[in-house]
Amino acid sequence: MKYYLIAGEASGDLHASNLMRALEVYDAEAEFRFFGGDFMLAVGGTLVKHYRELAYMGFVQVALHAGTIMRGMKQCKQDIVAWNPDVVVLVDYPGFNLSMAKYLKTHTQIPVYYYISPKIWAWKEYRIKDIRRYVDEMFSILPFEVPYFAKHDYPIHYVGNPCVDAVAEFRAKYVESREEFCARHNLDPKRPIVALLAGSRKQEIRDNLPIMLAATKHFKGFQWVIAGAPGIAEEMYRGFGLRDAKVVFAETYPLLTHSYAAMVTSGTATLETALFRVPQVVCYYMKLGKVVSWLRGLVLKVKHISLVNLVADFPVVRELVADGMNERELKEELDQLLLDDFYHSRMLKEYDEMVLRPLGEAGASEHAAEKIVGLLRKKV
Fold it and tell me: Staple partner for 198: which of 77, 158, 209, 225, CB 3.0–4.6 Å?
């Protein structure tokens, strides 16, 4: 069968490439054509346009490049119609992809499947109307989305979470001992390591890392190790005055393997930290914190911001957000994470029961591919 995939950013490129590999297992005659990136190209098929040409974020950037985006949409529509695939698989990237879904559903007979749901449970809930009208099947990577969409009379498929796959694959291959890891990075194997995951973007790091570092001065006997983000120069980290902290690059998973606790900027990293069973505090400082905290209650539709707490539907980890992310509050939480054995152990137990169990076993791409191929063959 012929599969046309659309991924509009780096993470979507990675997840789509894994899905493509799995589709080849269940469909030996699979052909691919796509808007995507290098990971997808490595699997095979035809890259029509690289996501870098269309990946603009924020109102100003989108407005400035509106012409480029519109030309990209037009090209995508024309290319899909000309190729006439058996299915179009949309991967995240809702602004672009929901527009494509509408066009395809109103102008063609091509089925529209969506892998990795738009986060309408957090904001822009009105998009459920477009999803119901224009998306034939939705494949979710977050278990709490199943009851959420059910409330809107739209049944979806939970296929597992790619983070579970990534961590399981890493653990199966990783053999380095704590002593070896510490020796490579000039760390003391006898002192507990606390990981600082301050985000992947420069602004996130500027906002969160100084507060994280300030909190470290209140604790003795621990080693503080920053997970360096790809594309961020070491000089930027050193510009914050690292005190006793070290920076390691491209080793977040090994770092978490050997960490006792972590300070984590909200995002996928919070889920990965839980999968490594490392107790954590979620840190997300934003300027104009009091205003942001007030707006949060008006704009966001969810009680939590971290994926850990969203999956659990319960405050397993403490979230320090906006004006709540400050040295005093962070020290207070670290007092419990680092010095209170009962608190530390309770979080690990809640990970196991309320986060890891709902996420399920590894195999998200395989589950999604099997379901996609099965549904398409039923239509033939």
Answer: 209
